[in-house]
Amino acid sequence: MMTTGSDMHKMTAKELIRMVLNKEQLFILDVRNESDFNDWKIEGERIEIINIPYFELLDGVDPALDKIPDDNKVLVVCAKEGSSQFIAEQIVGAGRSHVYYLEGGMKSWSEHLEPIKIGDLKDGGSIYQFVRIGKGCLSYLVASNGEAAIVDTPRMTKVFESFTEENQLQIKHTIDTHLHADHISGGRALAEKVGATYWLPPKDAEEVVFNYTKFEEGQVITVGNTQINIQPIYSPGHTIGSTSMIIDDQYLLTGDILFIESIGRPDLAGKAEDWVEDLRHTLYNRYKELSNDLIVLPAHFGKVTELGEGGKVSARLGDLYEKNPGLSIHDEEQFRRTVTKNLPPQPNAYQEIRQTNMGRIEPTDEEQREMEIGPNRCAVHDK
């Protein structure tokens, strides 16, 4: 953590994420507007957070001083950085120490990806989960014999380019499990840049305006001279094209169909009533045919409680059938009501995000950042 000219410090999103994953104690003063704070905030097991809007502190930080502990690190957070830096300076000027501001604000928190090794594959291969903790998005990198495949790539692709360069890997495939509605995919752009193959389920691609390779059941994608197989499993319900995959007979990447503590919502393309039966069939029939010992790796998580050891988001499929509330609704009408009524708010700008992922609109980089601000809200139970 870097010290600035005063006794104020700068904290990066990476440093903050390590504190969350390591369950370190931290006090956060969030100075964004109350509505923005209530919609989306930094969370962690040992994070204490309060919200006092910036405009309430312009005449002095006394309203905050009584609430800020003397013996703990204090992090001031705003949307982009400037407001939090100003308030942090005022708090330091009032005699407090151990005061930090978040570099890049909540935008940097939203965009940081942290690579976490999930496990080893046969013949020396590995699988990594890239945790985008500020957005609740999860991407994956499968590596074997100098080659890599990336699943559900976000628009921030440089982290994958750096990771593969450092580990002497060549990206051969980028794969989207479905047409995303909560974040902008970087899969096609990355594939074009590095000369890889971009895969997309064809039933989700009827309106796209670019070329892609069909990701569908019956295909076998290999990584590292046929050593690691990626086996697509058609699993509609979140979208009509949603396609899971089994990797190395060990891991089940479920996309947005099945999460650790919930199941995928079917309404983000306006087809909730049409896709309910598909969702139920995938969860209660198709996945039931698979091995209970497969390790489920979803494309999202909704709460920090889903982060396991070291920050991993994973669970054994058989265990989810015992614990996940979305997998124990045996009455069909009750299931229909659960996944179509009283759902959480839809993701920010989800219609525009879908249009972007179809290639039909081309927002600027800053417009894309704004479109993605906020939680993913892809799960039924993420209230």
What can you see in these coordinates?
The structure is a single chain. This protein has 383 residues and is of the alpha/beta class. The protein is built from 12 helices and 19 strands. It has helices at 13-21, 34-39, 62-65, 82-93, 105-111, 158-166, 187-194, 272-286, 317-323, 332-340, 350-357, 365-372, and strands at 2-3, 8-11, 26-30, 47-51, 74-77, 99-102, 114-120, 126-132, 137-144, 147-151, 170-175, 197-200, 213-214, 221-223, 228-234, 243-247, 251-255, 295-298, 315-316. The strands form 3 sheets. A 7-stranded mixed β-sheet has the order 7-8-9-10-11-12-13. Helix 4 links the parallel strand 5 (74-77) and strand 6 (99-102). The longest helix has 15 residues, at 272-286. The radius of gyration is 21 Å and the shape is globular. It starts with a strand and ends in an 11-residue tail after the last helix. The mean pLDDT is 91.
Poorly predicted spans = none
Shape descriptor: globular
Helix content bin: 25-40%
Overall mean pLDDT: 91
**What is the radius of gyration?**
21 Å
Order of strands, main sheet, comes to: 7-8-9-10-11-12-13
- Please indicate the percent range of residues in DSSP E strands (runs of 2 or more): 15-25%
Count of helix runs? 12
Report the major sheet: 7 strands, mixed
Decide which structural class fits the backbone: alpha/beta
| Separation, N- and C-terminal Cα atoms | 34 Å
Tally the beta strands: 19
